[in-house]
Structure formats: C-alpha cells, structure tokens
Amino acid sequence: MGNLEVVGRLAPSPTGWLHLGHARSFLAAWWSARGAGGRVVLRIEDLDSSRARPEFVDGVLRDLQWLGLDWDGPVVLQSERREAHRAALEELAGKGLAYPCVCTRKEIDQAVSAPHGADGEVVYPGTCRDREGSPERSGWRFRLSDSGDVGFNDLLAGAQVDSVAEQVGDFVIWTKADEAAYQLAVVVDDAFQGVTEVVRGEDLLASTARQALLQEALGLHHPNWVHLPLVQDGGGRRLAKRAGSLSLGALRDSKVEPQAIVQWAAKSLGMHGEGGTAQDFVEPFHWFNVPGGSPRVPSDWL
Ligand code: GLU
C-alpha cells in the first residue's frame, strides 16, 4: 500500500501573466488538498526556453502569495529536472516504446495521409516509426500500441475513454530543440513530487490519456484527475494569457482586493459562505458542490 496522504500541486508555466482562470484552478487545487489535510507542492513549468521568462516566474510567485496560497517543500523548476526527464526517455527507448523522429511539423502537417484529430491536432502518420539507425538531430515519439485507447476517470467530467491513436498518434515526448516535451516532463515530475491529485483546466483533458499511457509505460502511479471548465470573458471566450487586462496583476493595479477574487472563485466552485481569505474556504470546499459549466468573469472586472 502506498502513502495515502493527498498531495496536490500548482504547476504554472511562466510564459505570461496569470489570470482569473489560473487563480480559480490554483485555489481549487489548494482547497482540495488542504481540505483533505494534505500537502501542496509547487512546480514552475519553465521548459519552453523560447517562451519562459524570469519576470513571469517572479510574477507567478507574487500572484500566488497575493491570493494567500502557500506550498510545502522547495519550488521545483522543471528546467533543472533534465537528467530525470532524459532517464525516463532512455527507459522508454530501452523498452522499445520511444523512437527518434526527424519530421518537422510542416512535413507532418503536409503528409497526405494525416487526418486531423480533435482540437486541431494533427495525427502523426508514423513516418519515422520503422526508420533504421539513429539520426543526429531528432525528436522522440512515444510508440503507441494498436489503438492507444485509454480509460480514466475525471472527478468532474466523469468516465472518459480516449483514443490517443485517433487524437494524435505517436506523440512527441522529446523535442528537436533537445528539451523534454510537456507530456513526458509532467509525468516524471508529478511522480517525483509525489502528486496524487492533478487539478487543472479542461483544455488539458485531452492530454490526460497520453499522460496515463506514459505512467503505465514507466511503472508510475496515476494521480486522481480533475479538469475544470475554463473561465470565460464577457463575450464567452476563454481567457488567454495574452489578454493582459484580466491578469491578476492588472486587477491588483486597479485595486481589486485578493479577497474579492477568492470570494468569486469560491462562489463559482459552489461555496456560499462568508469569508475572504483562501484559508476561510478550506473547510467548506467539496468537489460534489462544484457546478458544471464555465463561470464568467464579473462584468465590473472587464
Ligand atoms: N504548466 C501548465 C500550464 O500552465 C499546466 C500543466 C498541468 O497542469 O499539467 O498550462
């Protein structure tokens, strides 16, 4: 039997300013773990060296503290986990579950046989699957078994069955720029940090099956997954990191108090109690009270 302690995580990418959608997911993750008497770990997902910037790391830390969220143990920087990521890649390659791929995105997009999967993703036609030898400048892909069908349960979205073969095919786990891909890094680092509960936006629901496959291939436990519907702006569009006006920093500058954001997030997650600080909502938080559907940003913040 493993350790039964709940370990939640906050896993921001420092590629932009955090917005209300991040605040809501982070509060939910924190309330869930703290409410279970568990720990919360923080990991900065700064692998994308072309987009991650130090000022965004500072911004993330400031925003979390401003919201009243804390975490246990050291802050893990994903960029410092390269050796562990590489070891996982080698383990997969050693098992015949990863292969080098020299295709460029353009080549993949142009392959006549590539049907388009869900969410605009392109299904990899398997061009490099049976290539002989090890090319010099290559990325790596995970080799799917026949269908890549994966079943898992999401606490809010319910039972899911995804066909990874139909969604993306053999997916990239190491980029041609010689960096671990998100799917591999997240799995290796969640296991390293002992994460038992992953709470994040619904836009990552489609990645979960890929992560479950990697966990199985690497002999790692599955965490519990919860994907929250995305927060929408006044026009019903999802918030983007580029849309700076609803960043937490911009709200802070226009004198919105953190308590107001905590209160809004709490209400959107099915809590009606009074209170203001994040701590005040640890006890009343329960997943079964969380309503479905996307919450809207209050009009006076737009
Ligand atoms: N770092 C990712 C993001 O900020 C989240 C990854 C995850 O929660 O698995 O979009």
Task: Explain the overall architecture.
With 302 residues, this protein is an alpha/beta fold. It folds into 2 domains: 7-81 and 190-301, HUPs (Rossmann fold, 3-Layer(aba) Sandwich), CATH 3.40.50; 82-174, Glutamyl-tRNA Synthetase, Domain 3 (Glutamyl-tRNA Synthetase, domain 3), CATH 3.90.800.10. 31% of the residues lie in helices and 15% in strands. It has 9 helices and 10 strands. It has helices at residues 20-35, 54-67, 82-94, 105-110, 164-167, 182-192, 205-217, 248-253, 258-268, and strands at 7-10, 39-44, 76-77, 98-101, 139-142, 149-154, 158-163, 172-174, 197-201, 224-228. The strands form 4 sheets. Strands 1-2-3 form a 3-stranded parallel beta sheet, covered by helices on one side. Strands 4-5-8 form a 3-stranded antiparallel beta sheet. It has a two-stranded antiparallel sheet with strand order 6-7. A hairpin with a 3-residue loop joins strand 6 and strand 7. Helix 1 packs across helix 9 (258-268), helix 3 crosses helix 6 (182-192) and helix 6 (182-192) crosses helix 7. The longest helix has 16 residues, at 20-35. The chain starts with 6 loop residues before the first strand and ends in a 34-residue tail after the last helix. Mean pLDDT is 90; it is low at 110-118. Bound molecules: glutamic acid (GLU). The site of glutamic acid (GLU) has 7 residues, from loops. Glutamic acid is lined by residues 11-13, 45, 186, 200, 204.
